[in-house]
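Task card 7
Instruction: Convert sequence to structure tokens.
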Amino acid sequence: MSSAPLPPEALDDWLTALADRLQLNSEDVPVGGLLDVARDVAHNVARPAAPLSTFLIGLAAAKNGGTTADIEAACATATELALAWTPGTR
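Output:
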């Protein structure tokens, strides 16, 4: 197992390989939107909340139909909450 970080140019190859392994279509993944949410959550909530948040976005999108639009809607909800986040709010 390599501990070297993934270079940005390898991101597409990694996502395609993982999507294939998970039997998903990588073209259905709004990468930019998910990375934006991860950034907003990491900066406004906490760094460890970023991957957990993207996981919850995936669960919510799957529950609501699993389309790219469902993912984008869940991203928008997460971003809105993250940008308005103050500790102790729900």
